[in-house]
User: What shape does this take?
Amino acid sequence: MITPQDYIENNYPIIPCYKNERRPKGDEWQDKETGKLERFNPGDNIGLHLINYIDLDIDNPVCHKFLKVIKTLGCAVYGRQSNPESHLLFRGSAEYVKYTMHSSLEAYYKKFRKEKTILEIRSGKGLQSIAPGSVIEDEEVRWDKYIEPKEYPGDLKKDIDLIVFATMLSIIYPGKGERDDFCYSIACLLKKWGDWTEDRINTFIQGLAEASEPIETRDKDDKRHNFGTRAYKGNTPKGLPTLINQMKLPEVGIKDIFKVVGITIGKETEEQKEKKITNLKMYDWNDYLHLDIKEPEFIVAKLFKTKSINFISGPKGNGKTEWTLGLTDIISKGGDFLTYKVNEPWPVIYIDGEMDEYDLIERRIPYTQSKAPYPGYFNIIHYAQQIDQTIPDIKFEHGQQLIEQKIKEVKQKTGKTPVLVLDNLRSLSNYKENDSDDWRPIGVWLKNLRALDVVTIVIDHHGKGENAGPRGSSSKTDWANVSIFIKSVGKGRTPGKMRMEIKFDKARGLRPDETQEYECEYDFDGNWTKVDSQKTQNEELLLEAIYNIKRSEFNKIRTEESKLDKDLEKGRITKKIYNKLRKAVHKEQSSTQQEIADKIGISVGKLNQLINGSYENYFARRTNEEYVARKNSPIGDDVSQEEIEEFQKLVDKWTEERNNLYPKKSKHTFEEKFPNGNKLPTEEWLRKNTDIAPIRYKSIIKAWDTFVQDRGENE
Assistant: This one.
């Protein structure tokens, strides 16, 4: 089976790809019909659209040592001469997974063809694989074993995880003299952190050794068959220290390999924690009501509650820290901050991982001139005062425990659980911003702190885009109670003051009227004032923006409806289809309230307030103004400016076409050949090239002619 015809006769969903390339032909190829011979030209490569197919794309040859069983489970096998058996094809579907080795292990994997890539599980609508009968890099893609692919008889992802795990360990497998220590260390790590059984460890280590060691150098007295037993019985355990110190393997690389099979080294896994829970508590509703569950109180009225996780994000240098310092100062003393009230003082632990140490003093002094916080009520942990000027990463248990200890100390001293401020997240952890799994340890820790009555304020840089929220993984704020976005404002700023805009990305437990965006100013002397935003000051701009959006949508709908009217008139569509298409046009061209609100930068609540309030009067005034303007215009009331501009494009197209018939180098120009020829498109040409109704031709041409004359006089 090597031709498009062969595949089509066997019901394979194939698509054409460019000659000697992996690239499919045509845009949006995923949505086009497959298995059509007429789509193929001679020499086209054959792409197998992976709908209901799974392609195991093997990039590292070491993988083949561990794939022998997989290859017997009903898959077709193909590849190229330089890379045979590199594709195992099954029926079915699976999530896309790409397995790669950590960059710290480059010295080991760089000798292979795709370097750090081990294997890919490829399946789904958006993926295709070049099939046998094609040519890639001047090499023929051919079948190594062809059978009708079958469904994988088991848990494919779990089995491939184990194979990739073994492959990676085999790639870094040491030479003679260190093999026993290497295998025993791996066995110990599997037992301690993976909780593998004796038999499973023994089987895996034995298979790894047999696959990785050349027969001629293999130890005669091979004892690796019982490493499972040795790993958990009375022997001196080995693990990371042996691999790192003795064999000089990078710690981060080793840990990354174990993650392939879901094992986290150095900390109890989530699964292990969950296994400790042996029973779920369940209550009758009446009993649940009588549990001693206290209603959360506001530490800061109408803003932050007890037991809460709160985010403050925004661009660098836009006032996040300044605003937070002002708020936390009032938290430590009690009183008012802008429209917020703190009824009683609460202790604060302010952890700073970025600001210059004296800069922090300078910013705090204005708040303490008239009234200082109680002793122990504003506590600072600054990176510059620590050993090596470093605060341990809060992603790891060690850093978390150090902070928790300080929380306990403050609580013992003041009798209250402190408010914890993390300024800022990026400077306090080296987590991968776009990796939800890497963020999870921090998120779980914040949730645990919340369970301990801690109010946490996390300062973070915001992502790309006006309304992106905190930077990186969207899972950051999944457990957040309140998320605030702060950015500086230059327009309308009082000289000598900082002006900023405050928006709410998330506000669990707050009413809509408590989360309206606002602007405020700071005078650098400890004084904050709320001010009317420019949007509030000039509501006319908002109404105009709403009007322009709705007017544009109306014009687009009218244009599309005119085309449908013409199709209905000429019998191209039925009345039933016309009604369906008309509804579709309205749905497609009409924005939702949320979309309009996002376009003009206001909340949906504010938008509804304007539409239900002053918009009706504004609409009546604008439409009347436009009607009078059209009536007094030389163009006339009957034809719009948009129609004039569209007709001008048609005139330009007509002129270009006629001039192309007789270019300058020809014997005669169009004007010479037809001196009395029409300077405007003919009705026949207009009927072929536009949807303008014939009855409108004269009105539009007249209005266009007037428009051109006026334009010439003005120029």
Observations:
- The two ends are 71 Å apart (CA to CA).
